[in-house]
Write a structure and sequence with these properties.
With about 120 residues, this protein is of the alpha/beta class. The chain has a single domain, classed as 5'-nuclease (Rossmann fold, 3-Layer(aba) Sandwich). It has six helices and five strands; from the N terminus they run βααβααβααββ. The chain has a five-stranded parallel β-sheet with strand order 3-2-1-4-5, with helices on both faces. α5 packs across α6.
Length: about 120
């Protein structure tokens, strides 16, 4: 299975938060699964950091590099797919994650119940 982590899931994973469900932890830790982190997640984290809404370690880039995650770029086709999505969710970061999950055949790991409306494979975090 190929997974795509929502922003809160990545942060919970890196911080070893008990908030993350056992099912999500097991799926992320399973070496048979490819785990992707989208550029949109890094973008959202860095925006929140710049606004003072989130503290991350000064070596955040290295922390990510130490994980066995694949990085997923945002493409023009992903952007076009966002435009074709129903308006179930207004958050542009989440809409991009849905578009990427749809286009790339990924299972989104999230706690955001609104994303279920997009009928993409999900693992509840």
């Amino acid at each position: 299975m190929n997974l795509l982590l929502d922003t809160h899931v990545l942060l919970w994973w890196l911080d070893d938060q008990p908030t993350l469900s056992a099912k999500a932890k097991a799926a992320i830790a399973d070496g048979k699964n490819l785990v992707f982190v989208s550029a949109v997640v890094i973008w959202e984290i860095r925006i929140k950091q710049a606004l003072g809404k989130l503290e991350i370690p000064s070596d955040f880039r290295e922390v990510l590099d130490d994980q066995s995650f694949e990085m997923l770029d945002i493409t023009v086709e992903h952007a076009h797919t966002v435009g074709d999505l129903a308006a179930h969710h207004r958050d542009p970061f989440d809409r991009m994650l849905v578009a990427q999950a749809k286009m790339e055949g990924l299972t989104l790991v999230t706690r955001d119940i609104l994303l279920k409306k997009y009928k993409i494979p999900l693992i509840e975090a």
